[in-house]
């Protein structure tokens, strides 16, 4: 009988220890690492930074899918921290996520053309440093909203290559939310680029071709800032060249899914039900192309 009690006590101790580590693991799985600040371009008037969130140590692999996030703000305002919420969300799903600082237009010397270059450069930087960042260079998705979606799309449509190692700025997929994609009639964009070409020269929808990355486009039917016809044109031209494209237009909302009837040109106030649908479609898209697991 004493031996039985000893075995029972030992078994209880083992079970308690196991429970402790399972509990600790579950707690750690809810955590992420970041933001960790990196400089991706030191050639400008000030250092441009990338704020990176890593999955926790239990989820982080040697090579992980990645998401680079471009905030909106009309090309002249905004901050990488606006993308921290998204970055944390997808880091918890196992991605290395990057919220990007880019050049903001000042209507003097800096234009959206500089921001487009920054957007391409950060993806080149991610691929060059993929080992250190634990990134699979062939599984990078660019996510942008509003003006940030224009920058995201531009990394692919107006892609560049790094001459020393032939790395491309084009991501492997695009998530474009309330996107600015057809700029020929955009007076604000025309003002911001000053005399450096015409707006249509920097308009992604009109320059699509074959071998574009798969894209998901999400827009409100009543968007007054980046009207839905821009998304439709981008989608139509994607399909014209046999690219994969998924377009979702949501009734009853405007820019950034603000309910119709409310001003949609200020700070976003998205309809919760529509935003939930948007998040679901993005999740399915990421699973379809194996950026995140199906779990």
Report what the structure shows.
By secondary structure, the protein is an alpha/beta fold. The chain has a single domain (33-288), classed as 3-Layer(aba) Sandwich (Rossmann fold). The chain has eight helices and ten strands. The chain has helices at 2-29, 84-91, 112-128, 130-133, 147-157, 187-192, 228-240, 272-288; strands at 32-41, 48-55, 64-70, 96-100, 135-145, 161-162, 167-168, 173-177, 215-220, 245-250. It has an eight-stranded mixed beta sheet, sandwiched between helices. Strands 6-7 form a two-stranded antiparallel sheet. Helix 6 (187-192) links the parallel strand 8 (173-177) and strand 9. It is globular and about 45 Å long.
Labels describing this entry:
single chain, 295 residues, alpha/beta, Rossmann fold, disordered N terminus
Structure summarized in a few sentences:
The protein is α/β, with parallel strands linked by helices. It has helices at residues 2-29, 84-91, 112-128, 130-133, 147-157, 187-192, 228-240, 272-288; strands spanning 32-41, 48-55, 64-70, 96-100, 135-145, 161-162, 167-168, 173-177, 215-220, 245-250.
Low-pLDDT runs of 5+ residues are: 1-29
Q: How much is the average pLDDT? A: 90
CATH architecture: 3-Layer(aba) Sandwich
Strand order in the sheet with the most strands: 1-2-4-3-5-8-9-10
Shape category? globular
Helical amount = 25-40%
Distance between the amino and carboxyl termini: 47 Å
Q: The CATH topology, please?
A: Rossmann fold
Estimated share of beta-strand residues: 15-25%
Biggest sheet character: 8 strands, mixed
**CATH class term:** Alpha Beta
Helix and strand pattern: HEEEHEHHEHEEEHEHEH
| Gyration radius, in Å | 22 Å
CATH superfamily: Alpha/Beta hydrolase fold, catalytic domain
- Helical element count? 8
- Counting structural domains, the number is 1
Structural class based on helices, strands and sheet pairing: alpha/beta
Strand segment tally: 10
How is the quaternary structure best described?
single chain
């Amino acid at each position: 009988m004493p031996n039985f009690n000893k075995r029972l006590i030992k078994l209880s101790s083992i079970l308690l220890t196991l429970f402790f580590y399972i509990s600790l693991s579950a707690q750690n799985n809810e955590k992420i690492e970041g933001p960790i600040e990196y400089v991706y371009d030191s050639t400008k008037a000030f250092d441009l930074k990338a704020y990176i969130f890593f999955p926790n140590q239990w989820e982080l692999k040697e090579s992980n899918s990645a998401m680079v996030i471009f905030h909106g703000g009309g090309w002249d305002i905004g901050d990488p921290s606006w993308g921290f919420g998204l970055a944390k969300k997808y880091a918890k799903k196992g991605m290395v996520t990057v919220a990007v600082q880019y050049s903001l237009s000042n209507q003097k010397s800096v234009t959206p053309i500089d921001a487009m270059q920054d957007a391409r450069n950060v993806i080149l930087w991610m691929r060059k440093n993929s080992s250190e960042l634990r990134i699979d260079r062939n599984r990078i998705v660019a996510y942008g909203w509003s003006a940030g979606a224009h920058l995201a799309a531009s990394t692919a449509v107006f892609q560049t290559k790094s001459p020393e190692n032939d790395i491309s700025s084009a991501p492997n997929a695009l998530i474009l939310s309330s996107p600015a994609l057809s700029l020929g009639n955009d007076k604000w964009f025309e003002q911001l680029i000053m005399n450096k070409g015409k707006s249509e020269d920097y308009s992604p929808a009109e320059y699509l071709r074959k071998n574009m990355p798969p894209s998901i486009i999400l827009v409100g039917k009543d968007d007054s800032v980046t009207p839905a016809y821009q998304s439709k044109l981008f989608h139509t031209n994607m399909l014209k060249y046999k690219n994969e494209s998924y377009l979702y237009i949501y009734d009853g909302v405007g820019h950034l899914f603000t309910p119709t009837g409310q001003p949609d040109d200020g700070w976003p106030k998205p309809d919760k039900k529509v935003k939930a649908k948007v998040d679901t479609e993005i999740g399915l898209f990421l699973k379809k192309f194996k950026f995140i697991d199906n779990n």
